[in-house]
Amino acid sequence: MHNRTPLTRDEVIRQSRSLPSFPSLITQILATLDDPDGNLNTLMRCINLDPLISARILSVANSAAVRGRRDSEICDIRTATSLIGMSRVRHITLISSLSTFIAGNSPLRVPTSFWQHSVAVGICCEELTQQTQTSVTPATALVAGLLHDIGQLWLLHFKAAEFQVCQQQAKLRTLGIEEIEHEHFGIDHGTLGSWLVEHWALPSSVIEAIRHHHNPQSDLKSPLVALVHVAEVLSNALALCAGAENHVTQLSRQACEQLGLIWNPESRLLFGHIEARASHSNAFFAIAQPGVM
User: Fold this and answer.
1) Is residue 213 within 8 Å of residue 226, measured between CB atoms?
2) What residue ranges define each of the domains in the chain, with the CATH number in brackets?
3) Which of 123, 152, 169, 271 lies most in the core, judged by the most C-beta atoms within 10 Å?
4) pLDDT value at residue 72
5) pLDDT value for 246
């Protein structure tokens, strides 16, 4: 270990207080998923206060209206929601909130690959909920996927030089990034990230998914742990972004079994859909991210 004293939870949380506040909208959405009316009201209230999110939703809705040969322009969020659906609006809102949060969270410019990878894994998680018999909601899966590497964002902010050394070593050594992080910091980014999202009061299932996404065998009871693990491996296999050498590469057989996933020629349809969605989302949400290069 390079650091004599490993990072502690108290140190991580104390320093994280100097970061921009975690978007309360995300916790509100997750808390009201079982209440459609409450979820819609939460979305409408928060969207109307955020010009960037509003603009993105109206852009998508008007594009859909043009394809549907609708004559009048859509100018309000409720009409947009009725056209493109609440799940699409929620998806745009969640990714927009997190893109702004991530863009503002490093004194260095956050690498494009970090955001691309986060979006790719989030979309993979969301799509996999449609292919399995899991009880995980698509919104929860999306948030867990988007945040799975949030511990690395903390390291980029507070331990930038040493974390860059870890990333370089990951390219040259046969060890995984999490093992190299242990050598330098005494913990890995999964554990560090789980401390952060626990502090932000996210659901316990999201906390555990972030903590164990490199080692899903540690918590085989949680379908969300398995989802995030499989989604990360799948996003790397499909080469959805750069920098894959720093992420999970070995697929857990137990995680696939837990989700009832069987890979066969028909899976190509799923892969193609994920590739198209990831490409579109990364292009769409690249707009107005001043902190991302």
Assistant:
1) no
2) 12-285 (1.10.3210.10)
3) 123
4) 76
5) 47
